[in-house]
Amino acid sequence: MLTLTTGKAAIAGIIIALWTIAAVWAVVTGLLMRRRAGDAAAEAGRLSQLLGASPSVPMLIRIDGRVEAPDKLGDWLGLGRVPNFVVDFAGTGNGLTDEDATALAKDVTAAQKSAKPFVRSMRPQESSRTLLMRGARAPAAIGGGVLVWVYDATESQVEIGKLGGEVARLTRAFDALTQLIEAAPIPMWHRGPDLRLTLVNRAYVEAVDAASAEDAVARGLELVEIAGGVGPIAAASAARDAGEVRSRIVPATIAGQRRSVRIVDVPLGDAGVAGYALDNDDLERANGAFRRFADAQRDTLDRLSAGVAQFGADRSLTFCNMPFQRMFALKPEWVADRPEFDRVLERMREAGRVPEVRDFPGWKAERREWFTSADGATEEAWLLAGGLHLRVVAQPLPDGGLLLIFEDRTEQVQLASARDTLLRVREATFDNLFEAIGVFAGDGRLHVWNNKFREVWGFDEALLASHPRVDTLAEAAAPSLSSPQRASLIRDLVRTATIERKARSGRVALKDGRHFEFAAVPLPDGNALFTMLDITDSRRIERALRDRTDALEAADKVKSAFVANMSYELRTPLTSIGGFAEMLSQGYAGTLSDQAGDYVKAILESVAKLGLLVDDVLQMTQSDAKLIAVDRETVDLVQLLDAVAVEHEAAIADKNQELVRDFSTDTGRVAGDAKPLRDAIGLLLAGAIADTPAEGRILIHASGTSEGALLVVSDNGPGSGSDPAMLTRVRSLVGAAGGRVTAMAEPGEGTAVQITLTR
């Protein structure tokens, strides 16, 4: 047994202690490493779970081209497992397309050689999934190659598409808004957070007389000046701090003119403050014009006969005209209180100016719906007590109010009733007229007819009810006429009356022997009235009268011949008596005593008068028989009248009468026999002298036209008329001269005889 020295023992103790410490360290280190390994495993598990839940999958492509990736990537590609190489990512009906697989392989090769990262979006075949591959060279710690992160970007792409569409929409809206602001006729601007100008429109540029919008912004040209101690920036700041829109009216110089403008500042939060300016002068003028228009409108409504009432959005009475107040017996002071709609209806009911209904509250509720009617204006007819008829129009207004119009239609209704009565009376009268009547419209169709019209032609009622054209009626009427071709005359008459607006008439005979006188007359409404009057009896009477006239004319000719012959027979003994009396007066039978001389003188005067009478009778009979030979010559009427007047001047002077000659320069000449005309004027003048008292007045008037001449002999005598026998002789003489005589007498006024001669 060896004995150790103290020094060796100490060394041995140290060594043992060191071994003990090393053992303890080893144990502790092992425990620590074990713990760290557990922690690492747990961390690896958490990382694996996190990676599995991640929308991205790592894919390591080694330098030799082999692919390492979770099976999840194979599911995304629709391949079931991850292929060994990138080129195998392409498949038939699944996986990537050949083009995408080739492009991915090129991106990987480029990343390996030049360390160029890449990003590529791909969509597997027959899949709606979108994969985003983001690749770069792998760190050296994992062996190099290329590390590709594959993201499932399906939802992201959809959201990106939506966001892209929204961005496009907002971009278009922003562009439209920008263009709208730029085209606005009022100045508009925007201030940034620092309240400096950042954007102005064209109207602003023109208002501040800047070169451009950029120039106005760069120079900070303000539209308005400091007013009331407040500048434009301070006002914008106050609006921003208060967080509310503020406006103020300030003076401004716009386009070189001093104007009053309303400045409106609109806070936009962190985006700054927007503003715009309204021309207050134009607004005031517009308000003034609107007030004047409203006043004029109300003045016009007051002048209407219809009652008008307007209610506001709160259903209170805002306006009513005087006819409305009178119609419903409303006092002005009551109307001035702006009563509510229901109160107005109740007051109208008290005045007896609403229809009698059992459920008045329900009736009022229905009328309140007028304010919100979606069908626009509502129209009603109110029949009130006493026979009053009101037409009511309710028009909802855009501001929520209501406009009511009440029109008194009582008179119109009464007139309509009277018109209907007149129409019925006219129809009854129309149907019972002796005349056949038909009214044709402007297009030639039969519009109205009476029973006589149908009976005359024997038309079927169904034919007339179809309102046939005149062509059809003429064709249907032809068989009834004695001359069927005359049916076209009906069509011509109606067309003349409706189109040419001329009246025509005529006669037509039917086969049954009846005769009708017809006429087509244009009516004021564009229609034509066709009438037919049965003149069968008149035709028979006319024929009988014509036969009687012929007989009378024959007898008159016999009488005229007898009188003419008698006149010639009387002339012979008168000539002998006159001749012997003339011989006695000249002393052929010896000297006659004074008494015998007076007898002979009386015989000669009687013979002369009897000769004149015989000549007159002979002339009258020859004129009636048209046996007088007219000596045609040109007769100067003024000269003829002067000559006749001279012949009677002595007789006029004896009675101290006044003879007035009124001869117009257009009297002229006529062609005819001067002798009978001169004799006629002489007879008229002699008759006027005889009928007019002493100091009376006699007028001879003469005037003419291109067609004829007018001669007048008048007096201011008692107006008893000229001697009928004398007038008969004058008419005979004037008739021989180719003229006609008209006599007029007015008791107490005188007599006038007018002779009309043709050229």
Automatic annotation (TrEMBL):
Stretches assigned to the Histidine kinase domain: 565-759
What Pfam family is a match, any one?
A: PAS_7
Q: Which UniProt keywords apply?
A: ATP-binding, Kinase, Membrane, Nucleotide-binding, Transferase, Transmembrane, Transmembrane helix, Two-component regulatory system
Name the chemical reaction catalysed here. Answer: ATP + protein L-histidine = ADP + protein N-phospho-L-histidine
Question: Where does the source fall among the domains of life?
Answer: Bacteria
Q: Which GO terms label this protein's molecular function in UniProt? A: ATP binding; phosphorelay response regulator activity; phosphorelay sensor kinase activity; protein kinase activator activity
Write down the EC number: 2.7.13.3
Protein name listed in UniProt: histidine kinase
* Species of origin: Sphingomonas paeninsulae
